[in-house]
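Quick one, probably user error.
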């Protein structure tokens, strides 16, 4: 079971980023409007790299391909996103969103430190070593 844990963790961790990226692709106008409501200048231009970071970083973590780099990319996204969008603790649910993002950063930091683990492209030809 221990050999599968990193894979399951990567699936769970990447799901939120992949869903967020897909949602932004499917409804960019709402996302841009929300970004503008928070006072972000050039929201339309920032939306494109946001989508790219979410999808590329999410896939990197999910597949375990350059997972450390993908995790750093997502952490680099989460820090400003958390500070810009989730620090109004008087608004309902923003405290949970803030701490959720801290938890995501914690999981991503584990990947930056320990790598993608078993069943990942980063493991290369050792992908199925010791599997009966």
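Nope, works fine. Designed sequence:
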């Amino acid at each position: 079971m221990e050999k599968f844990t990193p894979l399951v963790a990567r699936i769970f961790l990447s799901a939120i980023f992949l869903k967020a990226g897909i949602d932004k692709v499917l409804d960019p106008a709402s996302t841009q409007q929300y970004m503008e409501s928070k006072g972000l200048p050039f929201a339309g231009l920032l939306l494109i790299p946001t989508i790219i970071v979410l999808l590329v970083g999410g896939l990197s973590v999910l597949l375990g391909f350059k997972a450390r780099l993908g995790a750093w990319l997502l952490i680099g996204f989460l820090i400003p996103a958390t500070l810009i969008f989730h620090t109004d603790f008087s608004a309902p649910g923003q405290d949970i969103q803030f701490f959720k993002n801290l938890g995501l950063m914690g999981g991503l930091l584990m990947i930056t430190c320990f790598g993608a683990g078993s069943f990942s492209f980063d493991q290369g030809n050792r992908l199925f070593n010791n599997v009966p």
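The longest helix spans residues 5-26.
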